[in-house]
Structure formats: C-alpha cells, structure tokens
Amino acid sequence: MSTATLIIARRVLQQIRRDRRTLALLVILPATLMSLLAWIYSDTQMFDRIAPSLFALFPFTVMFLVTSVATLRERTSGTLERTLSMPVHRIDFIGGYSLAFAVLSIVQTIVSATVVLWLLGLAIEGSLWQFFAVSLIDALAGTALGLLASAFARTEFQAVQFMPAVVFPQFMLCGLLVPRDQLPTVLEKISDVLPLSYAVDAIKKVSAGSGSIGTDMLVLLAFLVVFLALAAVSMRRRTA
C-alpha cells in the first residue's frame, strides 16, 4: 500500500468527519431503518424472516449512494484533477477511497449488527464472525460499485439517478420478494450475475445456520475486485 493511498484515505476520512449529515447517513441510517422495521413488525414474526435480507440491502445501498456522490464531488470540484496531476496513479486514488470507505464500512457494520442482534433481538443460528464478515463485504461491494458508477456521471444528481437503475433491480431479484429459484428462468439467470443476490444468500445461510457461505463470499469478493478495477480504468482525469 503506497503512501499516496494512505494520504488520500486520511483526507477522505477527515472530510467525512466534518460532514455530519453524511456521517450520520453512513453510520446511523442502516441501524435506524432496521429499528423502524422491527417496530413495524413488533407483533409478528415477519421481522425475523425478512430482517436478514434487508440487513444486506441497506448497507449496500447506503454505501453505493454516498460513495458515488462523494467521488463525483471530487471530480467536479477539481480535487481529482489536481490530485492526479501529481505523481499519483489512478489506483492510488481508488485505493485511498476504498480504504477510507472500508474503515467507515467497518464502523457501520459494527453499529448496525450491534443494534440488530442485541437491541432488536434478531436470532441467528450461525457464527457471529460470519455475520459480520458477510455484512462488511456486502458494504464494500456497494462502495466499489459506487466508485464505478461515479465514473459515468457528470453531476451529483446523475449519480443519484444511478441508484434506481443499479440498486432497485437487485432489490427485486435478490430473493427478498420471491425466492430466486422461483423466479422466471430469465430473471433467475440475471439474478445470478448480481452481487446483492450473493450477499442476501450468504446472510440468510448464516442466519439459518445452514449451508456453506464460501462460494457466496468468493463471488462477492470477485465482484468487489472487478468493480474496483473497472473504476480505476474508467476514471477520467479531467472534468468534462
């Protein structure tokens, strides 16, 4: 890991620390949404059935949104252009942002999992470490996809517009609304190439204490690497 990567990561963390609204969105919102869900289903067993899937959805969505907007802001403000005019490679910029948001993802995962498991009482049959690991990789995949999406947007509004185009189809096909093996064949095949599907599958297996999550985790990690590589290749040095 280069010095430039660490410097960029520290700068991003300092910026987000000063932006309290973004910090609250990253750390508090997923746990708040899960608490609201538990309140809605307080008199039923529905919460225990759908909470694991939504626990995978919320961090992925929040990290995608914040990362795509924050990265685009770097480009439109000229910060990216100034940074890359120095002896810094694109991979350093991507690595710095990935490292910064990885730290935030860890904090988000700890806060959300603590609220869901101990305050809201969601029972899981599998390992707590596996639950944390899946949640963290899920949030990092959302971060990587947000970095990639930011390369194709020209304004922050366009970055936000990518969310319904990129996240909503995954929400509908990840197995939350209908089990994936009960989807029409074409939609099932599409769901097989969406990262959120594997996050939901893994978190369900951990919650139920059944099945191995090794394959799901490897696929999520592969998505993470591919998204980061494409983000580095697609990044423009100058603002259009």
From TrEMBL:
UniProt topology in membrane: Multi-pass membrane protein
Gene Ontology CC terms, in alphabetical order: ATP-binding cassette (ABC) transporter complex
Record GO terms (molecular function): ABC-type transporter activity
Stretches that traverse the bilayer: 21-41, 53-72, 93-119, 131-152, 159-178, 217-235
Matches recorded under InterPro entries: ABC-2_transporter_component (IPR051449), ABC2_TM (IPR013525), ABC2_TM_bact-type (IPR047817), ABC_2_transport (IPR000412)
Cell compartments where the protein resides: Cell membrane
Domain of life: Bacteria
UniProt cross-references to Pfam families, sorted A to Z: ABC2_membrane
Keywords for the protein's UniProt record, in alphabetical order: Antibiotic resistance, Cell membrane, Membrane, Transmembrane, Transmembrane helix, Transport
GO biological process: response to antibiotic
Domain ABC transmembrane type-2 residues, every copy: 10-238
Recorded family membership: Belongs to the ABC-2 integral membrane protein family.
Protein name: Transport permease protein
Organism: Corynebacterium vitaeruminis DSM 20294
